[in-house]
Each structure stands twice: as C-alpha cells, then as structure tokens.
C-alpha cells in the first residue's frame, strides 16, 4: 500500500491510500462481506471489526451466523486472508493493516462444501440492504479450457443486488479476474468476471508489470498491486518479497498471499473508503469512479485510447486503482443517469461451418437508433448471447459519432477461467 521501492519495485506504484488515511477516510460506517470459505474472526487483527450481523454459515448444518471455517484444514484460510486485506487493524503490531481498517467485515461461509446455484444466490443476496460491498475471489477453474458463469438463480441474485441493494443504490460486487495466466486462460470466459453487475479487478506487480498468473481480458476494469513477477519465482525468499502480508488461521500472519485473490479485497477496501466519502453513490457511479481515476502503471502494455478518450489495456483494464483520487472525486461526484438498455437480435444466418477454417460474419447493430434515448453519451457495457460462445471470438467495433473516434476490441471466448 506504500511502495517506496523497498523491494526493488517502482516507487509510487501503490494504492495511494496513505494521504486519505491522514484525512480520516478509514472505511468507517461501511460494511464489507467476504464470500469464501469463512473467516477466523478471532484473529487479533480482525476481532474488533468483525460484524456477526453481516455473516452467515451456508455450509454447516447448524443454520447459524458464525462463518468460522473448519480450522483443522489449513486450506480453509483463504477467506481469512481476504478479510485481513480489507480491515486488518492498524497500529497494533500484529500482521499488517487493511485498506479500510475501520470498516466492518462479515463473511459468508460458502466454499467449504458442495456449491450449488441456490447456495450462490443466497450468498450474493445475503442482507443487501445492510452489506455495502461483497468481495469474491473465486470462479470457474483456471485451466484455459473451461467456460462457465453464474447459473440462473445466481445471475438473478446479481441483478437484484445492483437493482435493489443498498436501498436502491445497488451493492458493489467486486470479483477477482483469476490466476490462469500460465494456462493462457482468458477471463472473458469467466461469466462472473464478465457480468455487467460485477467490478472485475486484476493484479499488477510492484514494478508495473503483468504477473505470471494474470489473465488478460476486456472484462478487467482495473488492477491493484498484489505482487507477482512476470516469471514465476523459483525460490521462497524471492517469492516472499513481492506478496501481500495479511491474516491467517489461528492468529497467524501470512506473508505469501499472492494472486488475484488479494486483488478483490484490496479493491473492496478502496471502495469502502469511497463510500465513506459519499454514501449516495450508485453501483454504476463506483464503476465510473474507478475508470476515471485509474492511472497507467507502466508503458510496456498495449495501451490505447478508446472511443470515449480513456486509456485502456487488455492487460490492466483502465489502469491502476487509485484510492486517493477516487475518494477526492467521490466527494463532489454527480450521479450518473439511470441505466438504459437496448437489445438487438440478429437475423438467422444459415451456413456451413468448417472445423478447419474460421467463418467470418459481420453484424451491424443499430438497436438504439429508434428509441427515445437514442442520443448516447456513454456506452458502459455490451453483452453478446450465443448458444455456442466457447467456439467464437468477436471483434467489437464502435463508431458512434458522439465518441472521439472509432474503437475496436477483440473478445476471445475460445477458452477460459476454483479459487483465484
């Protein structure tokens, strides 16, 4: 969170959070919920900020609110690590400090058992008028071959959460983009990451590079520094230098929390600071703030300006999340207009498809041209629905006159993205 080059990284490449801590933005009054394998809330860095009212155990048969994981299994510390990244207590000389160290933290224990569509929907819609931010660091397996996303109930829960949660302002769903970089996984094929309702966050190294585990995709909105080199480290000492320090089971401190698992809770902590600064922000306002405040972490990625004049990268989204700039902008932010949707159904095109040679099809969409709000000032999301998406790739081209210039994006769904 404060990179002064102490581990050989690029000084200043951090969340820019210390200046706003000094202005008393600490996450106070905001509640974050970790959707994972539970939280060891007895940890001295977590106990004071734990909120049982924002917690539930969906895996146990006891129907209680205690999200304590099965601590006999060391693999069940994932949620506890995520919680520490958000709210670890400051200045107590234990492990470290969370981004929003005075926010309240809850947990939904949901990953330590059979995961069903119904269970996911219950987790995603657990107390949406009490919880402000949900942090999730899991999704389909990162094997470069799986294409999967939320089933009908979970999808409906996401939609209801942003529509009705936070008393109509919409809850914030923060999702880790995945760790399938070594298998050339593409996070576009992770339906949780590519959902309109989620804010997808990836990782960047302390040198502004793309880590070896990082997945590339157009669904990534921003990145946060979680460590990780361009090449996978070969020694434990080398590995330890570039990872996040956080909370573990049995009061332990973890020094090897790596991957995009840490990205979602770090970003959630940043958003908690933003909601403290302005509690009237909608879920879409938060996305706009992320986009307009992000900064370019390095020049070695394929950066370009999109049709709205914003810098964007297939690796880093709109750039490095900047908590300080987000908080400053949030304080006098004007809410974006209500979300509008228009739909276009292409005509049936019957043709023979070869498994050897690709078939190219052009579809021109003007679905917003004949309706009352046809004068578009911003285009936030595009969704493409097809029964065989895993066999397709798309070149999405925008040439709206209200934009600065035409923009092209390549969406590869030919392969994809367990715990991130």
From TrEMBL:
Record-annotated Peptidase S8/S53 domain positions: 27-319
Active-site feature positions: 36, 78, 261
UniProt-recorded Gene Ontology molecular function terms: serine-type endopeptidase activity
Region (Disordered), start-end ranges: 58-77
Residues spanning the signal sequence: none
Keywords, ordered alphabetically: Cleavage on pair of basic residues, Disulfide bond, Glycoprotein, Hydrolase, Protease, Serine protease, Signal, Zymogen
Full protein name: Peptidase S8/S53 domain-containing protein
């Amino acid at each position: 969170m404060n990179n002064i080059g102490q581990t050989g990284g690029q000084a200043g490449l951090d969340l820019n959070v210390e200046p706003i801590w000094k202005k008393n933005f600490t996450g106070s009054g905001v509640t974050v919920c970790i959707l994972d394998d539970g939280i060891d809330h007895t940890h001295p860095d977590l106990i004071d900020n734990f909120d049982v009212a924002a917690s539930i155990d969906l895996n146990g048969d006891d129907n209680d609110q205690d999200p304590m994981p099965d601590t006999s299994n060391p693999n069940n510390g994932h949620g506890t690590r995520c919680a520490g990244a958000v709210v670890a207590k400051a200045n107590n000389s234990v492990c470290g400090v969370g981004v929003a160290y005075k926010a309240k933290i809850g947990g939904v224990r949901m990953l330590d058992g059979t995961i069903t569509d119904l269970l996911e929907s219950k987790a995603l819609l657990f107390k949406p008028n009490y919880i402000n931010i949900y942090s999730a660091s899991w999704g389909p397996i990162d094997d470069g071959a799986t294409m999967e996303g939320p089933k009908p109930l979970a999808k409906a829960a996401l939609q209801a959460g942003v529509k009705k949660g936070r008393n109509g302002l919409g809850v914030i769903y923060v999702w880790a983009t995945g760790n399938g970089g070594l298998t050339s996984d593409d996070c576009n094929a992770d339906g949780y990451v590519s959902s309109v309702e989620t804010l997808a966050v990836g990782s960047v190294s302390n040198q502004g590079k793309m880590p070896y585990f990082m997945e590339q995709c157009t669904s990534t909105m921003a990145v946060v520094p979680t460590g990780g080199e361009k090449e996978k480290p070969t020694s434990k000492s080398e590995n330890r230098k570039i990872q996040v320090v956080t909370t573990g089971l049995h009061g332990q401190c973890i020094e090897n929390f790596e991957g995009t698992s840490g990205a979602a809770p770090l970003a959630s902590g940043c958003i908690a600071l933003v909601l403290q600064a302005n509690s009237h922000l909608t879920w879409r306002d938060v996305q706009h703030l992320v986009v307009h405040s992000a900064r370019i972490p390095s020049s070695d990625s394929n950066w370009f300006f999109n049709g709205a004049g914003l810098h964007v990268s297939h690796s880093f989204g709109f750039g490095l999340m900047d908590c300080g700039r987000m908080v400053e902008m949030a304080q006098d932010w004007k809410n974006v207009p209500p979300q509008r949707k228009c739909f276009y159904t292409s005509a049936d095109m019957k043709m023979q498809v070869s498994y050897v040679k690709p078939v190219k099809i052009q579809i021109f969409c003007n679905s917003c041209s004949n309706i009352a709000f046809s004068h578009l000032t911003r285009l936030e999301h595009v969704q493409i629905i097809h029964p065989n998406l895993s066999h397709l790739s798309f070149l999405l081209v925008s040439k709206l006159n209200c934009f600065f210039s035409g923009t092209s994006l390549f969406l590869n769904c030919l392969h994809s993205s367990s715990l991130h």
